[in-house]
């Protein structure tokens, strides 16, 4: 159950919370209720008070025992028994229902107007009879004295169906091209219908003649309203014998007295959406009007907003349970909303426990989910020494900070600053003492924070007061007395830093003006010290303090800016000199470098040469390589250039080449020695 408050009017949403699937067993439902807090705390006032997809209309029977609702998909009607707090029956229909009416005190006689021009009658056991009207219908009303049904729709005629005779009667011919809504006064049975042209026609059922015509479209346009197109009538409702409320397609509600053609009051919803439902609450003289986005309750005498509700989904219909504070709505969602507003009236007798429940909630307000947690930023964690907890389960990331347990926060704060409570206690005692001192008769004292700024404001106020007295104007409010700027003269965090570079450059004349104020501050401090020592002596006066001021204030601000810049440069030079002295005092430590395998250390000049070569352009590097002989550029017969170059060999490659040369020489020597031996052997054989 959700609780909201607007204009100090509490609204309890009884249908809030998640709904359990129908196919779950009772055992699984109980297990889910134990695990999930939201499911356990929800209130299911009427079991399965919902539709499969969308609910379009909702009504209450005259005896108050049955609540009936129609919706889709598939088109159906569901009847709920309030005495059993459950569903009584469900009936599926052939087509969608535009609107319906309960003719009896209970559910035994119901009439449905469907979107395919059919009118269907249901009795207590189910479907009873079905007939069809010539044009598509949009609304109908039942005239109890004559048992006539009046149908309005996409036609200029109003069709009459007599239920006693069981036949259609002569229709009423109107001046309208189409009609949207209709209603019959419950006292004198005057029939009224709202047209697409923004007019309301009133007919007398006894004579079947028109007795009145109201141009509501013209009356709904005021100086504050902005409309697109001609407003048509989208809602109509009678209250008593003389009052009638009309809703337009552009979001205005007009309240009429039938004795006047001008509206008593025009209320704009400011959404530009058609008004879908109008209800009267007689106990508090309220009108409940609803469009697809909002339900508004406002006083019918003054037009002042009483309260309002904005559901999550679009609204199709609103029904006020009679003589109670319960309100129901059909929405573009499966679940139908139920609201309980104790200010409107008591709970219905079938759910009287709601009064006790709401009283307990008001006496014991529940703490929110975040009451047991503290929001901290990364800087706060570093100050508390808990930065190492980032990423653990003790901190929950949220926006630009984290949520942590309030108990852990208090423990860490006590360990980081054990004397925080003592400082807080001293600050509170000081504030109490200052509050008691403020009640005494005191002289004008300057605040402890931003004294020079306060003195400047006091001087400017004195000058302005003199000007306003001469011109006879009203005095402007003082910044020192304004509560919005009170903290600036109490909290030391708001102290103006006059030594900062920005302050000195943006305020070149501050140095001259501040000298005056500093002198005055010294004089005032001396006077306060004298008063504290000798309370009986009269107040001292500053004799020659102001007269001894120099006339240097008239100099241009350009010179002052130059002086300030020179001072800033001198300060920067001093800082640089200090840094250079510190650098000279610091001893340089030797650095060691590791040489890669296969390379020999020659000198640091090679690396310097390489860096210089890398900085040179490609053309310069090519010229150097041509001089060294590693690169040769020549012109070809085609006209292009041909470049031949030699790759530089590393130390390892040179060693390998030397080893290969030695190996080749050794093999050559071996081959020569072998051939020499063979030749000797051949000679010996010849001699033998």
How is this structure best described in words?
Residues 535-551 have low confidence and may be disordered. This protein has 14 helices and 34 strands. Among the domains are: 136-268, Methylamine Dehydrogenase, Chain H (7 Propeller), CATH 2.130.10; 373-416, no CATH class. 30% of the residues lie in helices and 28% in strands. The N and C termini lie far apart (130 Å). With 688 residues, the chain is α+β, with helices and mostly antiparallel strands.
- Helix residue percentage: 25-40%
Shape: extended
Q: pLDDT below 50 for ≥5 consecutive residues: which ranges?
A: 535-551
Number of strands: 34
Domain Nucleolar protein 10-like second: 369-417
GO cellular component, one term: small-subunit processome
Domain NUC153: 482-508
Region (Disordered): 528-589, 644-688
Features:
single chain, 688 residues, alpha+beta, Methylamine Dehydrogenase, Chain H, 5-stranded antiparallel β-sheet, 4-stranded antiparallel β-sheet
């Amino acid at each position: 159950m959700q609780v909201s408050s607007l204009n100090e009017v509490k609204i309890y949403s009884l249908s809030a919370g998640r709904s359990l699937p129908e196919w779950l067993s009772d055992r699984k439902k109980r297990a889910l209720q134990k695990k999930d807090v939201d499911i356990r705390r929800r209130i299911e006032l009427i079991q399965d008070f919902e539709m499969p997809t969308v609910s379009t209309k909702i009504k209450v029977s005259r005896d108050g025992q049955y609540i009936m609702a129609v919706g889709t998909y598939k088109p159906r009607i569901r009847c709920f028994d309030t005495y059993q707090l459950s569903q009584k029956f469900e009936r599926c229909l052939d087509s969608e229902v535009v609107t319906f009416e309960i003719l009896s005190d209970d559910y035994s006689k119901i009439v449905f107007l469907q979107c395919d021009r059919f009118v269907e009658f249901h009795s207590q056991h189910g479907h009873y009879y079905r007939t069809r009207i010539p044009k598509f219908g949009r609304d109908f009303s039942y005239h109890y004295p004559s048992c006539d049904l009046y149908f309005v729709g996409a036609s200029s005629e109003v069709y009459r169906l007599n239920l006693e005779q069981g036949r259609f009667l002569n229709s009423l011919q109107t001046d309208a091209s189409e009609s949207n809504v209709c209603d019959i006064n419950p006292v004198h049975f005057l029939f009224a219908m709202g047209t697409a042209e923004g007019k309301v026609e009133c007919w007398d059922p006894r004579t079947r003649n028109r007795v009145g015509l109201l141009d509501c479209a013209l009356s709904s346009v005021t100086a504050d309203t902005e409309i697109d197109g001609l407003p048509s009538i989208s809602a109509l409702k009678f209250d008593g014998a003389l009052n009638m409320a009309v809703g337009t397609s552009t979001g205005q509600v007009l309240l009429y007295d039938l004795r006047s053609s001008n509206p008593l009051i025009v209320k704009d919803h400011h959404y530009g959406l058609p008004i879908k439902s109008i209800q009267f609450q007689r106990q508090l003289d309220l009108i409940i009007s609803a469009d697809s986005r909002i339900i508004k309750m406002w006083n019918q005498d003054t037009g002042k907003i009483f309260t309002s509700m904005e559901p999550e989904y679009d609204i199709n219909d609103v029904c006020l349970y009679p003589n109670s504070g319960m309100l129901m709505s059909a929405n573009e969602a499966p679940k139908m909303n139920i609201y309980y507003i104790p200010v409107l009236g008591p709970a219905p007798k079938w759910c009287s426990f709601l009064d006790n429940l709401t009283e307990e909630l008001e006496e014991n307000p529940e703490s929110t989910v975040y009451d047991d947690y503290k929001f901290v930023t990364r800087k706060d964690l570093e100050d508390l020494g808990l930065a190492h907890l980032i990423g653990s389960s003790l901190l929950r990331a949220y926006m630009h900070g984290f949520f942590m347990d309030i108990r852990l926060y208090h423990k860490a704060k006590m360990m980081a600053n054990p004397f925080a409570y003592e400082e807080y206690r001293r600050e509170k005692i000081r504030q109490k003492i200052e509050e008691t001192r403020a009640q005494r008769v005191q002289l004008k004292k300057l605040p402890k924070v931003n004294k020079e700024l306060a003195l400047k404001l006091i001087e400017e106020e004195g000058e302005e007061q003199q000007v306003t007295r001469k011109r006879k104007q009203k005095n402007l409010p003082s910044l020192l007395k304004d509560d919005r700027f009170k903290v600036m003269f109490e909290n030391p965090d708001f102290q103006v830093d006059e030594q900062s570079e920005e302050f000195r450059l943006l305020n070149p004349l501050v140095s001259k003006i501040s000298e005056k104020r500093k002198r005055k501050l010294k004089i005032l401090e001396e006077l306060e010290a004298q008063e504290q020592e000798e309370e009986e002596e009269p107040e001292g006066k500053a004799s020659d303090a102001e007269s001894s001021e120099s006339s240097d204030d008239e100099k241009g601000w350009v010179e002052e800016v130059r002086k300030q810049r020179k001072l800033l440069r001198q300060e920067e030079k001093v800082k640089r000199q200090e840094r250079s002295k510190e650098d000279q005092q610091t001893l340089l430590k030797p650095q060691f470098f590791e040489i890669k395998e296969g390379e020999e250390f020659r000198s640091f000049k090679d690396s310097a040469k390489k860096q210089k070569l890398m900085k040179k352009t490609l053309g310069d590097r090519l010229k150097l390589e041509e001089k060294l002989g590693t690169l040769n550029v020549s012109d070809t017969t085609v006209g292009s250039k041909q470049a031949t170059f030699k790759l530089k060999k590393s130390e390892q490659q040179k060693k390998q080449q030397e080893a290969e040369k030695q190996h080749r020489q050794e093999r050559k020597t071996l081959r020569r020695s072998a051939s020499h031996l063979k030749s000797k052997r051949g000679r010996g054989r010849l001699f033998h």
